[in-house]
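Researcher: Before we compare anything, I want clean individual predictions. No alignment, no superposition, just each chain on its own. First chain goes here; please echo the sequence and then give the structure tokens.
Model: Echoing the first chain and its structure:
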Amino acid sequence: MSNEPAPPGCSTPVAAKIMSPDRVETSIGTPEVSAGVPALEAAERVFDNLGSLRAVEGFLNCYSHGVDRSLAPGVHFDGADASNKLLILDELMNSEPFFTEDLELV
């Protein structure tokens, strides 16, 4: 046990190396923290940032599903027309889009 005094609100001394600092630079600013508790403004900023991160995560999760769904008609046309069938290609596909005669992206 160290001879350090107990932090405010604690009855037992805590080693400084495991304590959270009162000031930390972050990408969303420098939150004000006292005894491990963020100020109201800092908590709101963190909550808003978490909402933004979850929105991006939701978009990215749905984006891959949309790409999969857009590939399904082409795979169905080429013979993989049931859930137990697989389409194997001779060559690697590329990411270049191609257009039909009426300029629709396929």
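Researcher: Okay. Second chain, same rules.
Model: Second chain and its structure:
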Amino acid sequence: MPARETLLLALVNIGFNPTFGSERLTIEAHLVDFESDLVGADLYLFFLKRLRDEVRFPNVDALVEQLQKDRVAGLEYYHSQEAQHYRDIAQSLIHDPKPLDL
């Protein structure tokens, strides 16, 4: 598979999915506005900002409503001037994965 050297916005949950009663730690990354096949691709996650703590929602509808708010907040931050520095660092790592002096 050819390398895709593009930054994509992802909303990531690292936790236990308490709304569904899971006791297993998972990492889930939802790529925003992305529809393609990633089977066999190398993916790297660069964390820019923590949006909120993990919450147990009373039902799936409440969870979906919060995820929609998280998507808006994530997009706003990703495109902000504040995040530009971190996007530049991530982009440089994609093209030249040597250790950086941060």
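Researcher: What stands out in the second chain?
Model: Residues 93 and 100 are 8 Å apart (CA to CA). Additionally, Residues 10-95 form one domain.
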